[in-house]
């Protein structure tokens, strides 16, 4: 977890965040007083985000949902014409379909 070594032998991607969190705990933490640890919450959030990418995943999910909504809205506002569908081989293109499939 916080050994500092990555898969290729170098420092892991989250090791700098771990060092920052550890130094914050050393500076602000005490055995009998836990009020200093509250100062380390941003460093801890950064470290956990580096490990698990939850905020990044939530943001990507929200962006994808917004993109899908905008694409669906574009389709509703500007549906494909019959000619566009015909070009896909769905309507009145039996000859083209036979050519593609190789049947006579």
From TrEMBL:
The answer to whether UniProt assigns keyword Translocase to this entry is no
Q: Chief subcellular site?
A: mitochondrion
Disulfide feature: 14-50, 24-40
| Record keyword Protease present | no
Return the GO cellular component terms, semicolon-separated: mitochondrial inner membrane; mitochondrial intermembrane space
Provide the protein's localization. Mitochondrion inner membrane; Mitochondrion intermembrane space
For this UniProt record, the keywords arranged alphabetically read as follows:
Disulfide bond, Electron transport, Membrane, Mitochondrion, Mitochondrion inner membrane, Respiratory chain, Transport
Could you give a single Gene Ontology term from the biological process aspect?
mitochondrial respiratory chain complex I assembly
Per the record, the similarity remark reads: Belongs to the complex I NDUFS5 subunit family.
Under which name does UniProt file this protein?
NADH dehydrogenase [ubiquinone] iron-sulfur protein 5
Source organism: Corynascus novoguineensis
């Amino acid at each position: 977890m916080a050994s500092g070594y990555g898969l290729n032998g170098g420092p892991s991607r989250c090791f700098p965040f771990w060092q920052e969190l550890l130094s914050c705990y050393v500076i602000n933490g005490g055995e009998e007083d836990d009020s200093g640890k509250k100062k380390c919450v941003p460093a801890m959030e950064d470290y956990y985000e580096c490990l698990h990418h939850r905020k990044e995943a939530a943001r990507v999910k929200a962006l994808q949902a917004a993109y899908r909504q905008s694409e669906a809205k574009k389709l509703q506002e500007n549906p494909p014409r019959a000619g566009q569908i015909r070009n896909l081989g769905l309507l009145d293109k039996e000859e083209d379909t036979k050519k593609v499939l190789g049947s006579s």
